[in-house]
Amino acid sequence: MTATIIKGLPVANVIREELAAKAKELAAKGIEPKLAVILAGGDEASRVYAQAKGKVGEKVGVKVEVHIRPDDVKEEDLLALVDQLNADPKVHGILVELPLPKHIRKELVMNRLDPKKDVDGVHPVNRGYLLGGQEHLALVPATPLSCIELIQRSGVELKGKRVALVGRGDTVGRPLASLLIKRDATITVCHTKTVDIGSITKAAEIVVAAAGSPGLVRADMLSPGQIVIDAGINQVGDGIVGDVGEGAAEVVAFLTPVPGGVGSLTTSIIMSNLLKAIGLQGLA
Amino acid sequence: MTATIIKGLPVANVIREELAAKAKELAAKGIEPKLAVILAGGDEASRVYAQAKGKVGEKVGVKVEVHIRPDDVKEEDLLALVDQLNADPKVHGILVELPLPKHIRKELVMNRLDPKKDVDGVHPVNRGYLLGGQEHLALVPATPLSCIELIQRSGVELKGKRVALVGRGDTVGRPLASLLIKRDATITVCHTKTVDIGSITKAAEIVVAAAGSPGLVRADMLSPGQIVIDAGINQVGDGIVGDVGEGAAEVVAFLTPVPGGVGSLTTSIIMSNLLKAIGLQGLA
Fold first, then answer.
1. pTM of this prediction?
2. In chain B, helix, strand, coil percent, each to 5?
3. FRET partner for A65 with CA separation of 20 to 30 A, picked from A28, A267, B65, B76?
4. What CATH architecture applies to the domain A142-264?
């Protein structure tokens, strides 16, 4: 058996069309959606990656400006940049590219963002809206939201399904757990201290791998008929691999690829969050 | 077989002794811990209940002042009271008794609290610290934290255990899920849309009932050897009953009673949060 591969790009294209239509409406009201990206340090590849957001932005009608700072940027200067962007009424969203240089306290930078401009949902207030069931007020982190969009827009019903979520990190796993619970899935959260993860993943109808560990979910931990969402994005050598191991496509019914799956949606979700942010700011 | 009953009061007494020692240290530094309780509307019973906190406070060295407002209190007046207590340096914690009168928007009142004085962890920032893995910065809601204290101080190990959590509400279920994940339990979150809850509860090592539905977890959904924590506090007639049904004590190994279990700890946990709040405010 060979699984049907759920590709991200077709879903991303549908989302982008919706966004372009909304951005046009905003433009008619005189609002020019603008995203500020902060890139502190990083190599040439990460600069290319940050600037690639500009291309997606062009397609959907969002202006993207990238603020590049050197590896040895002072923490106070980075915080001052956040303050400046928070205060700038022409900037509707702020994305801080990770990882930050090691001498920068990540929590301090994240917690400094205006929650209403926090398009990757990293500020405690946005996390809190998620946990507190006030998702309508929240800007939701992009990768977990991408998983949800990929599942739902592929026509997969979450309600009442048993979902094994492998991973409990603060970037993907825990926020994703809240989103899945809200959508009526029955989730089991597995992690490094879980005894016999395979018995849990095998018994589920949907498996979401979000541990950030290459090949952690092996083919022998999966069952026929399952839907498997691979949210892992792990750099191995020059390539990107997921958390689902080789051979999974020979076992399960549906599988998202890496690259080309969840990761293909995240930039579009950031743009979607930007338009939601404009609403939360009371501008539209 | 008859289960061992895990009573709340002995655990509460241990916690209160610890708190009294800490409050004495604070007093030596000239800090008099003070909790403000807001009670809007409610019947005679709820007034008695609110004022009962004063008695626990006396035992542990915390001054409790109850602010009673009538059933028809204006929302703006309630918000003004919150602002006044937020600004009062002599008040270290604020507890808003629920339910509020129906014409008051609960979210508005909760979100108005100074997060550092929010001793029942209802503000989005405190929820967000939980979901984001910054528990050290959080004031954690009292009932979920009471469940954790009752489990851990009874010598039950959470690490690696399979826990069936029945309930996904914003007061107990979802915050408790975060606390359990953080403590290395492998949790499955069950709710009204879950198919065959009994098969999940039966397979767990620990069952936590936190749905707020009298007797929802029936004895036939439990297994020998299990530890069952009943976080349900349901008013039925003149009495209080839990979420675990009759006969459970004949099946499982350990069971918390209602009343006399989780609920016996919550006021002590509020006081514990108050002392943590003093630390978060940079006063001690």
1. 0.94
2. 45, 15, 40
3. A28
4. 3-Layer(aba) Sandwich (3.40)
